[in-house]
Amino acid sequence: MFTIPERQSWMSTLARAELQQLEDLIESLVSNFHELPNYTFLRNPEIGLVMVQGRAGATGEAFNLGDMTMTRCVVQLEDMVDGLPISGFGYIGGRSQRHAELAALCDALLQTTLWHDQVQTTVILPIQQSLVKQQDRKQRQTAATKVNFFTMVRGEG
Amino acid sequence: MPYVAVKGGEQAIENAEKLLHSRRRGDINVTELTSEQIEQQLTLAVERVMCEGSLYDRELAALAIKQSWGDLVEAIFLVRAYRTTLPRFYYTQPLNTGVMQIERRISSIFKDIPGGQNLGPTFDYIHRLLDFKLLAENQVPPPSETSVSQESFPLVMETLDKEGLIQSEPRATQPQVPFDLTRQPLNFPANRDARLQNLARADEGFLLSLAYSTQRGYGKNHPFAGEIRMGEVEVIIFPEELGFEISVTDITITEVQMVNQFKGSKHVPPQFTRGYGLTFGYNERKAMSMALVDRAMRASELGESVDSPAQNIEFVLSHSDNVEAQGFVQHLKLPHYIDFQAELNLIRQMRQKSQDLSP
After folding, report:
1. DSSP label at B114?
2. Tens-digit pLDDT profile for residues B170-210
3. Is the dihedral of CA B98, B102, B106, B110 positive or negative?
4. How many folded domains does chain A comprise?
């Protein structure tokens, strides 16, 4: 029904959403489609650290650069799908427990046939669009600072 | 000098704390600064605190700056202390800085590089004149935008690497678990992974001065800024419970690749060598300093003589941390009455003896 790269892609999109945006999109999902199913926490939203690594000279041996805050959460939908429990995982940078919870919930929903397409179009797509828009604006601003220096012969000018 | 505990003084300490908070707030007729404003408008302070506090979290860094009256070393201390209260979930995959959302990227060694020279937001090339307009309400014109050519920004070092003109940056065939100074004691001589971790969280001022000392002749290695890049990179983790990699966020980093002269040795032909700087946030001065000091500390590995402070691994790594340094320097403020009493008695006795001896 879905591939791992597809799941990786929606999880990374959910992690990058603004919390308010995610709340709003889920609200419109509910009002346009269906009440959210009941779910329980397999792992309560939990704030912790992740040690970010770099590489010496960008390509060499790994080293530890410093920690980053992150929040993780696992939810399980109360109703089984085809006799199997569905669990959703949320991993986000920062310390928003609510964000991790909503990311986990959407991850679970996206794994069900009933919800997949709806969540994809109502939640994932708009987030992706705004991320692309932000990125595009930044790139255009950076591009405006592209410089072409002229080298002069010593003593000239 | 040992410190002997004192007791009492509760009321005075409590009052001093209250006074501290009130002075931090300043004149209550002036609007209070929000940590969100600090996050948005004192970004470079926030990024320095994240870098040296060794914790990427803008909101916490901004809060720490507010709480510490803008004393960044104190803010770094607060962030480090908070960090110790959280569990460590994962180690990320090493950042792939070659794939970066570039906000600034320059090279001082090649004029024409694929992707081009992008100045980005920089203080370089502008007049360092006070802008009195900022005293009044400030209207900032929106930044210019132009179309983007879909060029990538390959690492400049690769050009030199392809020709073998620069020392390669080898990776062990088996992935090694890098040293972690938050978990293991630092022993000497420290390997490059331990050194880079230490430098990444080291005090900017300390590294800046050491880097400057190498340029002035104390461990000279003729550096060029091969590439400086700043922008966002993906943070990827591999949670075992999930069974596959996921990308959890993008963080802003600054990366500096210094190219340094090297005359070669018995085994190695003359080639350029590298110094590497990597920081959380936009910390260009720090990243450049880090790269110079990283290279200086590679002296013995490259068979150069070690005779300057910046080349002395133990000296650099033992004194680079401003949380440790400020703690040890500032502990001198705490009551040392008993120790000093002992010293005082000793001096008096010695003076008495020398008086008795003199005719």
Report:
1. T
2. 787 787 899 999 999 999 989 999 999 999 999 999 999 99
3. positive
4. 1
Q: Say yes or no: ipTM exceeds 0.90.
A: yes
Residue B74 C-alpha from the chain's centroid: 15
Cα gap B310→B353, rounded to integer Å: 46
Residues on chain B touching A136 (C-beta within 8 angstroms): 148
b/e B233-243 (16+ beta carbons within 10 angstroms → b)? bbbbbebeebe
Alpha-carbon span B355 to B245, nearest angstrom: 79
Q: What would the mean pLDDT of B75-88 be, rounded to a whole number?
A: 98
Cα–Cα distance for residue pair A141/B147, rounded to 1 Å = 9
CB contact under 8 A, B180 and A67: no
Contact A52 B241 (CB under 8 A): no
Gyration radius of chain A over CA positions: 21
Domain span at residue A117 reads 4-143
Nearest to B232 by CA among B214, B252, B248, B204: B252
CA B316 to chain centroid: 13
- Mutant choice from B49, B56, B63, B101 vs A, greatest count of A C-beta within 10 A: B56
Q: What is the pLDDT of residues B220-232, one digit of tens each?
A: 778 999 999 999 9
Q: Is the pTM of this model over 0.90?
A: yes
Domain ranges of chain B: 12-84, 101-132+151-320
- Closest-approach residue (CA) in chain B for A72: B89
B120 touches chain A (CB under 8 A): yes
Q: Cβ contacts (< 8 Å) between B171 and chain A: which residues?
A: 55, 59-61
DSSP state of B276: E
